[in-house]
Design brief:
Helix content is 25%, strand content 18%. By secondary structure, it is α/β, with parallel strands linked by helices. The protein has a domain of 61 residues.
Length: 95
């Protein structure tokens, strides 16, 4: 008996918004740096180390850390708004 085959597309929807790169930082001194944790194991340790290094060695004024609930979906609007207030955002994958 022939049946219907359903194919699941596992990709997350993409944002329709695009933003041009606004500027290049000449220095990190006094900057606000966002760190977006993608919720993968161990990225939080790397994010903490990067934050300490940037603060101690390069004079970064503030580190804004946010963690997504799930790695495979886009960050919620509240997290994106927090990151938009930063001069620079670092994100990555752990494991």
């Amino acid at each position: 008996m022939l049946g219907t085959t359903f194919v699941f597309n596992p990709t997350a929807p993409t944002s329709k918004k695009s933003r041009p790169v606004e500027r290049t930082l000449k220095s990190l001194k006094g900057a606000t740096v966002g760190v977006l944790d993608n919720a993968k194991p161990n990225f939080d340790h790397l994010a903490d180390a990067i934050g300490e290094l940037l603060t101690e060695r390069y004079g970064v004024a503030k580190i804004v850390k946010r963690r997504k609930r799930v790695a495979g979906i886009p960050a919620p609007e509240a997290i994106m708004q927090a990151m938009a207030q930063c001069d620079l955002v670092i994100t990555g994958a752990g494991d």
